[in-house]
Amino acid sequence: MNNRPLELMIPGPVPVSPEVLDAMGQPVRQHYGPEWLPFYRQFIARLQQLFGTTGSVYPIPASGSGGLEAMLGTLIGTDGTAGIIVNGFFGNRLLNIARAHTPHVEVLQAPYERPADPADVRAWLRQRRVSVLAVVHSDTSTGVLNPVEEIAAAARAEGAALVVDAVSSLGGTPVLTDAWGLAAVSTASQKCLESPPGLAPVAVTKLGWEIIDSQRAPSRGWYLNLRSWRQYEQEWANHPYPVTLPSNNIVALDRALDRIFAEGLEARFERHRRAAAQLREGLERLGFKPFADRRWASPTITVAYPPPGIDAGALIETLRVQHRIAVAGGLEHLAGRVIRIGHLGNQATPEPIRRVLGALEASLRQGVPSSP
Ligand SMILES: Cc1ncc(COP(=O)(O)O)c(C=O)c1O
Questions:
Q1: Which residues of this UniProt protein bind substrate (predicted)?
Q2: Which of 356, 14, 329, 300 is nearest to 144 (CA)?
């Protein structure tokens, strides 16, 4: 058994830089009071910049799904009518969350192979009374990028407001929360933000608050309720959040933000695009067939069918055991049929992509054993 640590090329969590790990390992800080608050305020201002919003941002201690539940649950309330676009596994997750909050959920089921079409979304909305529409930006199960800006415009034209799962997109591809007229956006620390898992930053715009404040039946939750976060922000000057914040995770994410802004967002988006192209080209050369057409392929995740006759599960195991590289398998009907490779954050550089391609090539050359 090879005990070398696994190199994570899964679509999150991603490898974290030594500086960020070092920040995570500093002594635990008091998460309120005068020594912490100036730092915290600056941290929130930088998250606002990252989201492209002057609205609220809350670093909710949770995995990505916790942020999605806070966002969707609060925006829909207990009686709102939600529309969910489903063209991947994570669209289905939004659907499950929405159904846990309101009995009134409309589903726009769309093919997994393609992005949702804004014209179809608009025509679909015209037949329904949807107040909050939700979509996944980069569905990590398919590697398809949905056109959020255009879908937001379509929603607006039909009187609906768009909320976005940007868990695997924010920080790797543009997400302009205010400029695109979004109501809310949710992400997670462990993907393009190249930090350890544990924080789910959620942004809510003026439009989002208008929807929340005009609800007849607000969300019943407390912890994952953005109203609680706003109430403490307004009323508890010395501790402007309702719970103990995981200060180490925040210090680590703040250090990652140093790196992200030092690189520059545009340079970063370009780096992700280049990594995606490098991987795609390499995979095609080896006989893999990418799931998403290049016109709408996500710059942060690639999903691909192995060459004919090659078992996806056995290939993943060979990479893990012989090359100590972790890539992921398919979800839902794609389970056992595809591999999923992350190029998020620190993964999106030429060397890791070259390593994963080299390991795939060597595995194919040696002959992949059949699944156990
Ligand atoms: C697009 C997307 N949404 C939601 C999630 C769920 O995040 P978590 O597993 O951190 O709850 C993921 C995780 O992979 C994701 O990629």
A1: 340
A2: 300
pLDDT average, residue stretch 265-279: 98
Q: Is 28 exposed, middle or buried (0-12, 13-18, 19+ CB in 10 A)?
A: exposed
Sign (positive/negative) of CA torsion 134, 137, 140, 144? positive
Mean pLDDT to the nearest integer, 72-77:
98
CA 136 to chain centre: 8
Distance CA 58, CA 202 (A): 5
Angle between helices 265-285 and 247-263 (to 10 degrees): 80
Q: Ligand 1 — pocket residues by CB below 6 A?
A: 12, 63-65, 90, 93, 136, 139-140, 165, 167-168, 188
What phi, psi does 116 have (nearest 5°)? -65, 140
CATH of domain 18-261: 3.40.640.10
**Does the pLDDT at position 126 exceed 90?**
yes
Q: Which of 69, 89, 167 to mutate to test the pocket of ligand 1 (most atoms within 8 A of CB)?
A: 167
- Are 83 and 106 contacting, i.e. CB atoms less than 8 angstroms apart? yes
Domain 7-13+264-366 has CATH 3.30.43.10: no
Query: Which residue of 14, 164, 168 sits with most ligand 1 atoms within 8 Å of its CB, as the best mutation to test the pocket?
Result: 168
Q: What is the pLDDT of residue 372?
A: 46
Both tokens assigned to 147: 């056109």
End-to-end Cα spacing for the chain: 17
